[in-house]
From TrEMBL:
MF terms (GO), sorted A to Z: signaling receptor binding
InterPro entries the record matches: BTN3A2-like_Ig-C (IPR053896), Ig-like_dom (IPR007110), Ig-like_dom_sf (IPR036179), Ig-like_fold (IPR013783), Ig_sub (IPR003599), Ig_V-set (IPR013106), IgSF_BTN/MOG (IPR050504)
Listed Pfam families: C2-set_3, V-set
Residues of the Ig-like domain: 74-156, 159-262
Keywords: Disulfide bond, Glycoprotein, Immunoglobulin domain, Membrane, Signal, Transmembrane, Transmembrane helix
Alphabetized SUPFAM superfamilies for the sequence: Immunoglobulin
Protein name: Butyrophilin subfamily 3 member A1-like
Transmembrane regions: 278-297
GO cellular component: external side of plasma membrane
Native source species: Scomber scombrus (Atlantic mackerel)
Listed GO biological process terms: regulation of cytokine production; regulation of leukocyte cell-cell adhesion; regulation of T cell activation; T cell activation; T cell receptor signaling pathway
Length: 304
């Protein structure tokens, strides 16, 4: 026999879920419960996400320059760092360190005082924080009397926030060049020497109009203190403008030192003039000798 088709109670062309078979009603209830669970899970995830966003926005970050800073030997330098948004660091722990050192600490500020006992010996008496600015979130470090050995990467760490940042310090040494001049026939030789540079610099010669002059190869010597001495020579001839410049520069630390020199016009003596002057001098001497001989001869004639 042919199975009878399932029939659903119909009232005026409408049907109600209560009149559905039990297995269909159970499926619909399961679907609704699953849908509610998914919505609840999504809502929970959204709440957690918003809470994390709010927390990250509310927590201060350690903000320091991303580019290396440059200092010259003997000068002071400030590692600019701050808490953003600003909060007081006066009662926090502020650690400045160089990971390559042992002990690594350059400065430790804790509970309102500096812990000198934790500081590396080479930084004793040379590092400090701006105490009056700590309450405003200024956690900058001042390093005095910079040395070549201070070059490296420094880390600022706030344990309470578990936040940190690093700054790279490049150190350079500079000095002004000294220029001497010597005369060689019809030309003048200028020598420029500059001691105490780091890193190794370059030397250039310029004329009065700023044009580069062709010079001999630069001589470079590195001393036991790791500082460089550079020396350069250039031969110049007499010209309209006898103004010359020795320029020593180091691009990495953006340092330039210059010394200007003016060569007097009469310092240039041509070879022809030199021969003429020697000839004249010899002639004068010869005339003087003749005069003396004549005077002696005349005196003896008078005696006799």
């Amino acid at each position: 026999m042919r199975p009878e088709a399932a029939s659903f109670p119909v009232f005026f062309g409408l049907w109600t879920p209560q009149l559905l078979p039990k297995n269909i009603r159970d499926t619909q209830q399961t679907s609704r419960m699953l849908h509610m669970k998914v919505k609840w899970c999504l809502g929970f995830v959204l709440v957690i996400y918003l809470a994390l966003i709010h927390r990250s926005q509310g927590e201060s970050q350690v903000i320091c320059p991303s580019q290396p800073i440059v200092a010259t030997v003997g000068n002071d330098i400030i590692f600019l760092c701050r808490l953003e948004p600003p909060i007081s660091a006066l009662e926090m722990t502020v650690e400045w360190a160089r990971p390559d050192l042992n002990p690594r600490f350059v400065l430790v500020w804790r509970d309102g005082v500096e812990l000198e006992s934790k500081k590396h010996l080479s930084f004793k008496g040379r590092t400090s924080v701006f105490i009056d600015e700590l309450e405003h979130g200024n956690i900058s470090l001042k390093l005095s009397k910079v040395k070549l050995s201070d070059q490296g990467t420094y880390r600022c760490f706030i344990p309470q926030l578990n936040k940190d940042s690093t700054i790279k310090l490049d150190v350079g040494a500079v000095s002004s060049p000294v220029v001497n001049m010597t005369r060689n026939s019809s030309v003048v030789v200028l020598q420029c020497e500059s001691k105490g540079w780091y890193p190794q610099p370059e030397v250039f010669w310029l004329d009065g109009e700023g044009n580069l002059l062709s010079a001999e190869p630069t001589e470079t010597v590195r001393g036991p203190d790791d500082l460089y001495t550079v020396s350069s020579r250039v031969t110049v001839e007499k010209r309209h403008n006898n103004n010359f410049t020795c320029k020593v520069q180091q691009a990495k630390i953006n340092q330039i030192r210059e010394t200007h020199i003016i060569v007097p016009g009469d310092f240039f003596i041509t070879h022809t003039n030199s021969v003429g002057r020697i000839t004249i001098s010899l002639a004068v001497c010869f005339m003087c000798v003749l005069a003396v001989v004549f005077f002696v001869w005349k005196w003896r004639q008078n005696e006799t």
